[in-house]
Every structure is written in C-alpha cells, then in structure tokens.
Predict the structure.
Amino acid sequence: MQNSEEFKNQTLFRFGFVKKIFENSFYDQLYSNYPKLENFDDGSDMSKNQLKLDWGENSNQKETQNIHMPGSDAVVSGSDSRFSKEWNEFKQYAETEEFVQGWRDFSGIPVNRLRVFRFLAYRKGGFQLPHIHNVGPSTLVLMFYFSKNWNEGEAGGTYMASELDESKIIFEPYDLDNSMALFHDGPNSVHGTRLITKNSERRALQITLEGWSKENGWTGS
C-alpha cells in the first residue's frame, strides 16, 4: 500500500497519513450516515473535551463478549442496528483477517485483532492535550476522518509531536475529508488535537488493532 515505507521509516515514532482511503461512493454513504452528535456520550475529562460513541447496543452484550475476550474494553463483535448498513459492513470488514493483515503488512506492527471501533467527534471548543498511551508493543491506532471544508492550518486533525508540548508538533493533517492518520502506539507516540475554534463538527472513527492471544489476552492490557 502507498505510504507504507514512509510509515515504517519514521525515526521518532511510526506515523502516517493516507488520503482517499475509501472508494468515493462508499465513503459518501459513511459520511451521510455518520451518527448524529446528539446521540454521543460526553468523553471529556481534564485533558480533553470530546464526544464518543462506542459500538455495541447494550452492556449485557459487552459483558458477554468480554467473557471470551480478555481486556474489558474489547469491541463488541457483530452488528449494531443503531448504525447504517454501510457502517455495519465496514465494522464487519474491520474484524476480518484480510483487514488486519493488510494493516499489519502496511505497518510492520504484529497486530492480529480488532480491539476498538469508536466514533470520536469534536465541536467548537473541542481539544485533546498532547499525551502518550504506550500501552504495549503491538498497538496500531487508525483515525478515519469524515469532515468536509477544513482549511490549511485549522485545528481538528490528530497531530503528532516530538514532545508533550503543543509547540512541538511535527505533523498535523488538514484534509479531513476521506482521509486517515495512523500511528504505532509506542513510548514516544505523542499525539493530540488542538483547540477547535470554528463552528464545525470534526467527525472521526478510531480503530485500534492490537496483538492478542488466548493465553495472555491483549498485549496492551
């Protein structure tokens, strides 16, 4: 896949950006049927002001799934009737070995299973301070964007930085219409989102792929 070698050869930590990630007609359906922000939960805390919506219709379904999937925040498998046919198709594909292997080959990171499938959105005033997760050696975070009319220099995309300081940004995407930022979630993977000052919705989907085994569970647990 295009940009794979650039991703693998980053020195501080591995990150990348891909435009036109979806075929246009399928993207248009995902864009048109992106969940209404009124249905999102408040995911804010001292470090961020954001909205989130997780896959899975009820807590009982999540509890049942987690009996078989070590790691309490594993995504619920299967469909979710709250979302459109196209979103369910994409979620189903994200669970396949073809999808996971494709990103494993692209990144060189030994991921083997979908862990997170989560809608993340910001309105005016939204932000996330620079931070590092560093939850394990085999975690790949993909941020898919579904926002039109973002201009060069405007906040909203997930930036990458060399230090825990917003003045140290080394990359920030501005084309948030059918694009994706991704990074290896390692010990130096500083990322965040600058304060959004425009009266717009930044719509995104986070997919996290990670190493998992029946014996040990998630590598990032």
Summary: The chain has one domain: 4-218. The CA atoms of residues 96 and 113 lie 8 Å apart. The first strand starts at residue 15 and ends at 19.
